[in-house]
Amino acid sequence: MIDHVSIAVSELARSIRFYEKVLATLGLSKLVERETTAGFGKRYPEFWINLRGGMAREPTDTGAHVCLRAPGTQAVDAFFAAALEQGGERDGAPGARPEYSDTYYAAFIRDLDGNRIEAVTFIVQK
To answer: Cα 74 from chain centroid?
Structure first.
């Protein structure tokens, strides 16, 4: 249903460095870079970051929440660790989320501008 999403960032080069490391844990890479935008994905840009003039450089609650599918729990854990290593903030440590479903395993971070980014996988029950 959704082809791609985009979020606003205050400093493009800084955010590209952040997302190159963080999204690599989910198998995404930077596929497009232009003067005010960059697109990440596997085969085509599915996740875009767009420079927005006038944004505060300090993280704020932008209201944005994007959830990206991870191939497994190890990728969710790696996503969370990479985000923290790159200066992101924790917003929900990796783990099961039974309040969502019995198979939901996710981690939540805030990027350098306060956007809430989640990685999720679904645990196969035996």
So the answer is: 15
The answer to whether 49 touches 55, Cβ cutoff 8 Å, is: no
Burial (CB < 10 A; 0-12, 13-18, 19+), residue 38, is buried
Of residues 63 and 30, more confidence is placed in 30
DSSP letter string over the chain?
----EEEEES-HHHHHHHHHHHHHTTT-EEEEE-SSEEEEESSSEEEEEEE-TT--SS------EEEEE-SSHHHHHHHHHHHHHTT-EEEEEEEE-TTT-TTEEEEEEE-TT--EEEEEEEPPP-
- The structural domain count of the chain equals 1
Confidence of residue 14 (pLDDT cuts 50, 70, 90): very high
Give the contacts of 33 (CB within 8 A, at least 6 positions apart).
16, 39
How long is the chain? 126
Domain extent for 27:
5-122
Q: What is the CATH number of the domain that holds 10?
A: 3.10.180.10
